[in-house]
Amino acid sequence: MKKVLVTGGLGFIGSHTVVELHNAGFEAIIIDNLSNSSIDVLDGIYRIIGKKPIFENLDLRDKSSVQNFFAKYTDVVGVIHFAASKAVGESVENPLLYYENNINALVYVLQELTKMAEASFIFSSSCTVYGQAEQMPITEDASVQPAMSPYGNTKQIGEEIINDVAKVSSINAILLRYFNPVGAHPSAEIGELPIGVPQNLVPFITQTGIGLREQLSVYGDDYPTPDGTAIRDYIHVVDLAKAHVVAMQRLLNKQNLAKVETFNLGTGKGSSVLEVITAFEKVSGKKLPYKIVGRREGDITSAYANTDKANKVLGWKAQSSLEESLASAWKWEQKIRKN
Ligand code: WQD
């Protein structure tokens, strides 16, 4: 079986990607330092796929650990790189934590890949690189705006590093710019595990629905949108995971049209905060307590993907609706609270 390294493989999107790699006949090897995940996720993966992937608990900020890993696993054919800190607000408070973790680790992994005859590299990027794009839906050639946070900047810098390295090395890469990943595996064996008070909308909603949070604060209803609340493109995490497998297969089969390709991963449909609340109430049968408060610093009005390139070139399309995504998130929330 072809071995694929998944860094951050016990994280939210990483763990779902490990499952889909297995389903596609790959063997995933996980690296995770458990800084933003739990070893229990490995058991959840086991309960879904019936085997425990190789797991190496190491920190990619330690260059020698990265070198030792690749010296040990010489038959890795590709890397899907999720490992990174991703909280926008925290990145403003602690930028060096983000530059060290999100940039140094990327550099050390790429240094090892340049030693290989050929290497396939998938990078976890984000629609945050577009800032507030002028035109909706957002295409991959929309201009990259000055980052609104150190987190967003590390994604932009990461993409630039990959482009520079691919030009002069054996690395072929695909940059995947996620919109808003939500939901959980239908088995409810793995899902999102926010630490502390969730920063993101959907986990805060499900925790409010289960009674963990008193009420949701809606960050502003004075945006220039139909109902005044901000619009995002909420994509099911399993659809997102499948896109990573398709992208890896594209590189391994040498179907890429350039050394570095970029794809927006979204549903192509924008949903406002109030629409997400309504959809959650429908799938959960719960009335969600919320209050309208002021806008959150750094938030944009609207972002949803133009999915033409992902559909026609990558050959991937999101399947789940917002309601299906929210239903899976709710099922997961109920499951973890019960345990
Ligand atoms: C969605 C909408 C909020 C919480 C960020 C990163 C992105 C990715 C996903 C990492 C916004 C509103 C939220 C709440 C609210 N992160 N909201 N009340 O900000 O679009 O994207 O997370 O990969 O890179 O930028 O996601 O879920 O925080 O917010 O009203 O309690 O929900 O204002 O309009 P966001 P989000």
UniProtKB/TrEMBL annotation:
Cofactor(s) listed in the protein's UniProt record: NAD(+)
Domain NAD(P)-binding: 5-326
Pfam families from the UniProt entry: GDP_Man_Dehyd
Record InterPro entries: NAD(P)-bd_dom, NAD(P)-bd_dom_sf, UDP_G4E
CDD domains, alphabetized: UDP_G4E_1_SDR_e
Enzyme class: isomerase
SUPFAM superfamilies the record matches: NAD(P)-binding Rossmann-fold domains
Subunit structure: Homodimer.
Gene3D superfamilies from the UniProt entry: NAD(P)-binding Rossmann-like Domain, UDP-galactose 4-epimerase, domain 1
GO molecular function, one term: UDP-glucose 4-epimerase activity
EC numbers, comma separated: 5.1.3.2
Name of the protein described by the UniProt record: UDP-glucose 4-epimerase
Protein species of origin: Flavobacterium aureirubrum
Family note: Belongs to the NAD(P)-dependent epimerase/dehydratase family.
Catalytic activity: UDP-alpha-D-glucose = UDP-alpha-D-galactose
Keywords (A to Z) from UniProt: Carbohydrate metabolism, Isomerase, NAD
Pathway(s) served: Carbohydrate metabolism; galactose metabolism
